[in-house]
């Protein structure tokens, strides 16, 4: 028996159930090859989840069970939680075929689950995700929370700028939480802006969010905002070879920002004051080791109340600041 066969057998709960030494390599196991008596093996939802979890774990995928559940739910066209009341449901060959190709792409090509299913939930909003945008990350919810804190009045008619909007995650979460805010979302990537636009339309927010192409603050030259936010690319090119393989499926310009990862943050910290009204707020996502430097740049640029906000994992994640004037201390 091959190592892969052994793992597959154990995951399918077959230990000690008689001779299955002729098992195929892992991927084919899901095809429902015939049992020794000629009948086709029945695969239930739970069998497949167990098998895939083990398979993903053996490939060092970080969240093997969760990924298996998301992909199986997607393949079957049901909610993930619905799997839990269908553990004993036998799956047809067609259902298994669709699932198997997703499993292969996840395990072998390391395509992120969000890209395989085309969706990702962020701030409880369902967002469409393609290979043209960064998959919104949970830590970016700290940026949204900070932004909302800077706009405490839910009914204020605020003007908000989101630089580097990607899928629109941050811009749309703010527009959703502040029903009178008008949000400008920019990006250097035209395909990303298309995805963001479609998300705004799906969420019924298109009338309050405008999308502008271009880098940094160029698309909004001469305008002023009450809040400026950004989750820019901030990974150093130098560490590219040491990153998880999943990142190869996301757009380069969404991830990397020059040799030290600070190319865009440097421009944002220096230029934010130029597009902020007196007392306006600013919030920039950073990687933890960049926080102190970016905070210093904000102070040097004349911003006040500069604070480093930690994410749920207690890592420095967002630089929060105010423009001088009304509201700043
Ligand atoms: C890290 S992703 C963030 C996407 C989204 N805001 C989120 O939080 O999920 C950064 C985005 O900024 C865009 N971008 C990169 N450099 C930029 C620049 N100089 N000006 C504006 N957008 C930029 C990328 O195309 C990408 O969509």
> What fold name stands as the CATH topology of the largest domain?
Rossmann fold
Please outline the major beta sheet. 7 strands, mixed
Strand-pairing-aware structural class: alpha/beta
- Helical stretch tally: 12
Number of domains: 2
Mean pLDDT: 90
Using DSSP, what is the number of strands?
9
Over all CA atoms, what is the radius of gyration?
Answer: 24 Å
Name of the CATH architecture of the largest domain: 3-Layer(aba) Sandwich
Low-confidence stretches: 1-26
CATH superfamily of the largest domain: Vaccinia Virus protein VP39
Share of helical residues = 25-40%
Order of helices and strands: HHHHHHEEHEHEHEEHHEHEE
Q: Which strand order does the major sheet show? A: 5-4-3-6-7-9-8
How far is it from the N-terminal to the C-terminal residue, by CA? 70 Å
Strand content: 15-25%
- What hetero molecules are in the model? S-adenosylmethionine
| Highest CATH level, the class of the largest domain | Alpha Beta
**Coarse shape:** elongated
